[in-house]
């Protein structure tokens, strides 16, 4: 059981480029969550997805950010036209149908230069 | 908006002492969870306490939950330098689906 796999671990992008962050949930988990953590702060909820459905995107910025969890393959968090303020650690978590049993990935640290 | 608020924001103690961190939240919950994060690393799940539970133990960890006060505490007994980390509480709201809402965390430093 490989756990929640996030890649890449570190990502450097220049301002204006696109960032694509990937998350493969644990086997058997159908719920995926994305969180963002700024330095010295707690995690902030961004989006909650099930296969092919966005359930709650109340934490997503209105522009430039999108997320998907296709029928096949990993969940993708996409940030278009990145700005320096997007620099943060992005964590993905997955869970089965029940309300407990969350497992977090190791995160992707995005640096915008 | 964030659900949980931890206090203190930072805590500095000597090895062997106990560390107590508190968490308050605003809405009715299904469960409350505590996580640890070492600097620059991912989150490690420590313990989950359900809304119908009042206390739970795991090794040197003791968690209490008071739903009437909407608060929880995490006690680490006989602390070690390796316990140095940030500790976060996170809640799953009742009546809804299972998304975690985190507090801002307590930064614990344990000095040898």
Kindly report how far apart the N and C termini of chain A lie. Answer: 36 Å
Give the amount of beta strand of chain A, in percent: over 45%
> Mean of the pLDDT scores of chain B?
91
Could you estimate the helical fraction of the residues of chain A in percent? under 10%
Task: Please tell me how large the radius of gyration of chain B is.
Answer: 13 Å
> Structural class of the secondary elements of chain A?
mainly beta
Major protein interface: A-B, 24 and 23 residues
Order of helices and strands of chain B: EEEEEEEEEEE
- Beta-strand percentage of chain B? over 45%
The helix/strand order of chain A is EEEEEEEEEEE
Would you kindly provide a written description of the structure presented here, covering whatever features stand out?
The complex is a heterodimer of chains A (113) and B (112). Chain A has 113 residues and is an all-beta fold. Chain A is 0% helix and 50% strand. In chain A, strands 2, 4, 5, 6, 9, 10 and 11 form a 7-stranded mixed sheet that branches. Chain A is globular and about 40 Å long. Chain A starts with a strand and ends with a strand. Chain B is mainly beta and 112 residues long. Helices cover 0% and strands 58% of the residues of chain B. Chain B contains no helices and 11 strands. Chain B is globular. At the A-B interface, strand 4, strand 5, strand 9 and strand 10 of A face strand 4, strand 5, strand 9 and strand 10 of B.
